[in-house]
Design a protein that fits this description.
488 residues; alpha/beta; Amidase signature (AS) enzymes; 11-stranded mixed sheet; 15 helices; globular; binds glutamine
């Protein structure tokens, strides 16, 4: 077997029909990861030989007529911020370079129980802080459509693993867009579920009130299948919702008649949006309308404050979460230190990269006495207003359609000296995290040889409706079938 792997549903059908074994599939996935995946910088570590052994076990189960789930025997990749007992999880950071977890993440346990075969851990921005997958001690991830450009971030490796046909589906995390934006840049589907839908137990924390785990795939149906496996209550995550895993796959057949798609007036402004993005997204909205949806202009009046509120809240939470890396309990410890304070200083200075340090400094500042009210409290108030904007909008529409990112994938290195510019690229994605909403990015065309993504948002817990609209769109369009050139 060579060439890109098929979609999850194609591979499952082939396994069910006995045309393919999981062992052959996993071998092909590992080979492609070691060749194309390596040239794209997509992986931090491959789980070889573990994945091969697990594939053999999956084949044996299947021969005995015991198939655990639609993911049984399917190769999958996970972002390197999800822990597994006995394995190193680095978060692409020097501070965790040798960190071996004593326990497994809830999502990893669920994937194991479903028989999914984790072939590798994907590259990312350090601690998931970034939008380009360049801030990694393992080097930058490259976009398979054009290797001089970024695949987006922070879950760049997971998006690339699917886009390059190394795995049919993968897992990422999304705090302010880290699943949706790389999905958009790489031409795949990326789903961020409702906050609390998927357990954060064992996800290395960035900003806990915003972090959520989700999936990449080539179709809405494939990410729905993964969501059904990974979602559901977990008492070990205090913000985990009590609702059971949502039945999404069966909702995908619904057509669009009667569905109202809201277009937020504030998102479709000239300022800052690339004309190619506007054209592709407008065309996608017209296709939704042609397929029977009603298009309605809605208003999200506080949108202009979202990026500022996000970068205050996310950095505040990050500065608190990352206080645990003190050189004592886990991770990198500086040697030859003079006293305890020197140990903290040097371990953290040596262990964290520049972008992470920038955020710790910013977050510490906004939480400090005298600034707390002016920045942190204000940002929390804006968060409430944003939530209310969405509540109001969803009283008149089913889903909201926006671009996922304002621009096409930019060149590697282009934003290295301009963090503010990088942050502003998150303008369409951060609101869903601040409001806790589910969101998905789906491919809606190519411009300048690289993909453009359409973002759809829904009210909390409405993943079935959200993916139903995405699936209906994909029945009308072929954009998600486009593949990057093989030689990238
Ligand atoms: N780009 C955003 C940030 O850097 C989002 C990252 C994420 O979702 N993990 O904070």
């Amino acid at each position: 077997m060579s060439g890109p792997l098929g979609t999850l549903s194609e591979l499952r059908d082939a396994l069910d029909a006995g045309e393919l074994t999981s062992s052959a599939l996993v071998a092909a996935s590992l080979e492609r990861a070691a060749t194309l995946g390596a040239s794209l910088g997509a992986f931090i570590r491959l789980r070889e030989p573990e994945a091969r052994a697990e594939a053999e076990a999956a084949d044996a189960r299947r021969r005995a007529g015991r198939v655990l789930s639609p993911l049984d025997g399917i190769p999958i990749a996970i972002k390197d911020n999800l822990v597994r007992a006995g394995e190193v999880t680095t978060c692409a950071s020097r501070i965790l370079e040798d960190f071996v977890s004593p326990y497994s993440a809830g999502v990893v346990e669920r994937l194991d129980a479903a028989g999914a075969i984790v072939v590798g851990r994907t590259n990312m921005d350090e601690f998931a802080m970034g939008s380009s997958s360049e801030h990694s001690i393992f080097g930058a991830v490259r976009n398979p459509w054009d290797s001089t450009r970024t695949p987006g971030g922070s879950s760049g490796g997971s998006a690339v693993a699917v886009a390059a046909g190394i795995v049919p589906v993968s897992i990422g995390s999304d705090t302010g867009g880290s699943i949706r934006q790389p999905a958009s840049f790489c031409g795949v589907v990326g789903l961020k579920p409702t906050y609390g839908r998927v357990s954060r137990w064992g996800l290395v924390a960035y900003a806990s009130s915003l972090d959520q785990i989700g999936a990449f795939g080539r179709s809405a149906a494939d990410v729905a299948t993964v969501l059904e496996v990974i979602a559901g209550h977990d008492p070990r995550d205090s913000t985990s919702l009590p609702e059971p895993s949502p039945p999404c796959v069966e909702a995908l057949e619904a057509d669009l008649s009667g569905r109202v798609v809201g277009l937020p007036r504030e998102y479709f402004v000239e300022d800052g949006m690339a004309p190619e993005v506007r054209t592709a997204v407008r065309a996608a909205v017209a296709e939704l309308e042609a397929a029977g949806a009603k298009i309605l202009e809605v208003s999200l009046p506080h949108s202009e404050f979202a990026v500022a509120a996000y970068y205050l809240i996310a950095t505040a939470e990050a500065s608190s979460n990352l206080a645990r890396y003190d050189g004592v309990r886990y991770g990198h410890r500086a040697s030859g230190v003079s006293d305890l304070s020197d140990l903290y200083d040097r371990s953290r200075s040596e262990g964290f990269g520049d972008e992470v340090k920038r955020r710790i400094v910013l977050g510490t500042y906004v939480l400090s006495a005298g600034y707390y009210d002016a920045y942190y409290r204000k940002a929390q108030q804006v968060r409430t207003l944003l939530r209310r904007d969405f509540d109001r909008a969803f009283s008149s529409c089913d889903v909201i359609a926006t671009p996922t990112a304002p621009e096409l994938p930019f060149r590697l290195g282009e934003r290295a000296a301009d963090p503010l510019r990088m942050y502003l690229g998150d303008v369409y994605t951060v609101s869903a995290n601040l409001a806790g909403l589910p969101g998905v990015s789906i491919p809606c065309g190519l411009a300048d040889g690289v993909p453009v993504g359409l973002q759809l948002l829904a009210a909390p817990l409405e993943e079935a409706k959200l993916l139903g609209v995405a699936a209906a769109y994909q029945r009308q369009s072929d954009h998600h079938r486009a593949r990057p050139p093989e030689e990238a």
